[in-house]
Amino acid sequence: MNKIRRGSTVIKKSDNRRIVFIVDKIVSEHKQKVAILKGLYIRIIEKIPLSELKIVDRKYVNNYIEEKNKSLEKRIYSRKNSYANMKTGKILHLDGDRRYMEKSYKYYKKLGLNAVVKYVPEEKQEYIVKDAISRYKPDILVITGHDGMIRKGRNYSDIYNYINSKSFVNAVKRAREHELGKNLVIFAGACQSYFEALMAAGANFASSPARVLIDFADPLIVAEKIATTDSEYYVTINDIADELRDGKDGVGGIGARGKKAKVTHL
């Protein structure tokens, strides 16, 4: 039997949905080995005892990735060339997961969107966000990565009961302090994030009102919608919900005006 180690792909024995995780690290807690897990396609980070996990083989992982990619490629194909003649809003996307950063970049590029995507660990995002805004001058800011509740179903209003929500909240606050940040449309959060705190900090859209999981692509879909909507139109969560993993349970917000510039013909 293969031993679970850093980099292993695993599932939880009790998980009927068979969500695949990557083992980010293994630590000792309360005299047992515990894995820090990050979702392969879900923006969750969790601590789970090794005894509750099992390794999945490469064939299973490949099939899982292929299934997820098919859904994303179908979306890209349905929109191919739709934005070719648009002056879409500029997206700055800070992602706490390097794999997600790479996949996000490919997604935006295939759609022809104007996007800068940077890998920045969640705990560092608040310290670089102002400089990033100054450098790239975005219309839309995505602050995301992985998150999760430490004690699920309890202490919803305790910022310290969330693994990365405090970092996301601070990054949103720093962004809004920037002169250019006052006009930004901001999406912030990941799985099970402290939605109310993110909104209070200044986000237009945030996860996760019902403390559920969100898909890797959910923040991208929100950014895409804002970037490709005319500035005279106001985008609400109702305009996006059907395209998201768990709709308004996963993402909520006050909405924002689109950032696609009007093209005037002389």
Per CATH, what is the topology of the largest domain? Rossmann fold
Oligomer: single chain
**What is the residue-mean pLDDT, rounded to a whole number?**
94
Biggest beta sheet summary: 6 strands, mixed
Helix content: 25-40%
Number of domains: 2
Structure annotation, total helices: 7
CATH architecture grouping of the largest domain: 3-Layer(aba) Sandwich
Strand order in the sheet with the most strands = 7-6-8-9-10-12
Runs in which pLDDT lies below 50 for 5 or more consecutive residues are: none
CATH class category name of the largest domain: Alpha Beta
N-end to C-end Cα span: 70 Å
Query: SSE string, helix = H, strand = E?
Result: EEEEEHEHEHEHEHEHEHEE
Write the CATH homologous superfamily of the largest domain: Response regulator
Summarize the structure in short.
With 266 residues, the chain is of the alpha/beta class. It is built from 7 helices and 13 strands.
Can you characterise this structure?
With 266 residues, the chain is α/β, with parallel strands linked by helices. It has two domains: 51 residues; 178 residues, 3-Layer(aba) Sandwich (Rossmann fold). It has seven helices and 13 strands. Strands 7-6-8-9-10-12 form a six-stranded mixed β-sheet, sandwiched between helices. A five-stranded antiparallel β-sheet has the order 4-3-2-1-5, with no helix packed on it. The radius of gyration is 19 Å and the shape is globular.
